[in-house]
Specification:
Elements (H helix, E strand, L loop, with lengths): L2 H6 L7 H7 L4 H23 L7 E11 L2 E11 L11 E2 L5 E2 L22
Antiparallel strand pairs: 1-2, 3-4
Length: 122
């Protein structure tokens, strides 16, 4: 096939945009489009909730294998969304080496007082 004829053939990928549009019958491009929208949403939410300058990445990788004049193409991608900023929790260690949210050295002001108590006379 001549160079001039190949330029008129719509099945020929003449640039990267056309190429990525036909890899996996267009599914890779559709997935990347959805992931881009999700990443931008995650960055927006991160900035609203945490502040700062959130960052993200989309890395696309293509593998090419040539065998008997046929090129097999595989496409993969990875997403790096803004890191979640974790909260902080404090616990105390019990005598049994368990964690509790109550300081065992403080009196529990909200203990159950509905039970029977000894009545004292003064």
């Amino acid at each position: 096939m001549s160079q001039q004829h190949a330029q008129r053939d719509p099945a020929v990928s003449h640039n990267f945009q056309q190429f990525i549009g036909v890899v996996e019958d267009g599914q890779l491009l559709a997935d990347l489009t959805n992931e881009l929208q999700k990443l931008i949403g995650d960055m927006q939410n991160h900035q609203i909730n945490v502040g700062g300058v959130p960052k993200g990445d989309i890395t696309v990788k293509f593998g090419f294998k040539l065998e008997n004049g046929v090129v097999e193409v595989t496409g993969n991608y990875s997403i790096t969304a803004p890191k979640r900023v974790g909260g902080r929790s404090l616990f105390w260690v019990t005598a049994d080496n368990l964690l509790t949210g109550r300081n065992p050295k403080q009196t529990d002001m909200f203990r159950d007082v509905s039970g029977q108590r000894e009545v004292r006379s003064v």
